[in-house]
């Protein structure tokens, strides 16, 4: 097998999952692999299902050896196979690939460290990663789009977000010449030359009967002059609404991961038009929320919120500019989204809104399970 930049290994199924859950998992993996294939050369078993004469007993181990990077798609079933805790009739292909990776570790630990990378797809938690693999780099895919895989792509392509400047500029720092006198940019001890000049000028003013003018205070007063508080011309309610949408998707997913660790499986899915949040407890849905763009014709500058996965909406918000705070904000209509009392016209930052929303979600979940 020729040298391969990226190979993806994953567990196809979990015997505890329903057919619908299994298909949803496969679709997520398929979408991720195809998206990644737009930017790097990637191989996975899904590309070879119809290959004539395919020998699955050798394909996976050879791909692991040939790959520069092996992406290990994290899931409960995957790590059971890694630890040998899977059922004996399940996951033989993934186990072969894992054995090949362990062989790399036994042969060359540094090569294993460079080759192995763990990937958490949306909804997966890093709490499942085995302790012995915490030395391995892992990346969280926040959404199946370019923004969601950006950090992982930077690792695969070797394009860091922060790069050191290779070219250095040598400043012109002339040597001190004897007899040239004091320099205003001299050592930071004693009285600065410009301060001495100012004192000299003030003494001359006093001798002539003039009141010395405090230049520093005048500058401070000028800087404190009142400026008009208005909405900047560059503010766009549509762009800011998109920023709020992205922020809510990321924040709900991160908070949902924490909630899942406390015994409430939480699923957050994001598309270009909708964010869905589902919280479960013992197989039952205890909270559901959908966030969508628009609430009908002429309202594409709003986000709507629907409880319990309904087709209607219970609340909505707009992106506005808070001229008092001089920053973007959101105006929430129907505050029953955030409390037991109705209302409207609640202006707050997107961070404040998310905190209130999450508090409301947790309070509702608590009431459901008491």
TrEMBL record:
UniProt-recorded name of the protein: SEFIR domain-containing protein
Record lineage: Bacteria, Bacillati, Actinomycetota, Actinomycetes, Pseudonocardiales
Positions of region (Disordered): 168-192
